[in-house]
Amino acid sequence: MKVQLIECPRDAMQGWPAIIPTAVKVNYINSLLKCGFDTVDFGSFVSAKAIPQMADTPDVIEKLEFSGTKTKLLAIVANLRGAEQAAHWQHIHFLGFPFSISPTFQFRNTNSSMEESIERVATIQDACMKTGKQLVVYLSMAFGNPYGDRYNEAEVVDWALKMHSMGIEIISLADTVGVATAEQVGRITEAVVKALPGTTVGVHLHSTAENWREKLEAAYTAGCRRFDGALKGIGGCPMAGNALVGNMDTEKMYSFFKEMKVETGIDERELSHCSRIAAGLFV
Hints:
Blueprint: E1 4-7, H1 9-14, H2 22-32, E2 39-45, H3 57-62, E3 72-77, H4 80-87, E4 92-100, H5 103-110, H6 114-131, E5 134-140, H7 153-165, E6 170-174, H8 182-195, E7 200-204, H9 212-221, E8 226-229, H10 250-259, H11 268-281
Parallel strand pairs: 1-2, 1-8, 2-3, 3-4, 4-5, 5-6, 6-7, 7-8
Helix pairs in contact: 2-11, 4-6, 7-8, 8-9
């Protein structure tokens, strides 16, 4: 059984306090493209005012080298305008849209209500169908939220079914601020996997050094085969407005699956090289 590992330098970089030069991003992402990841979440087409770190995404993709790699690119978008910009690029395979089941976070993240966001999903999906792209919907705050918004685990399944009914074939459950327990990750992931046979159900988990393994194992045991991560565990959404819990550390994920004898497609030597780059970049 093979799993898909999704490396997310965009998530690692977007909240970094110092602007990272375009050339540095290009070098890092080009190195990641050699590792064997299924997908690299490399940038976003969103408001430069909201996420200034990602303002150079068009400049970055112009300088990427795709020869010899099978890795696909994913870009995050927040509205139809961003989707149309991203769809212009041949080498972007996936567009990612963060749909939060927390109304507070949806407004903070995309400046839209949940009702407006559903409409955006529909229009972006239509744009993807017309341009040969595939939409990935992230169900943000899928394991709870810190805002006091109503939360019900059954609603996660309901929203996943709603997205599926709109033609979305990849749904990723996001532990946006790291509030999930391993038991909750397993329970909700299994429920969504069972409700949507044939659909790719992923997880975008944030974790601490103490609980990463339990969360990862719970998702895998529940039937998840698509996992987001970031080298060194850097990242988190700057729009969350609270202390961030970092991304799942890619090297730890790789070691976990290697120990489990689960195929990842990762070139260990190239991964180590990228880890060294990340260590110098995120300091």
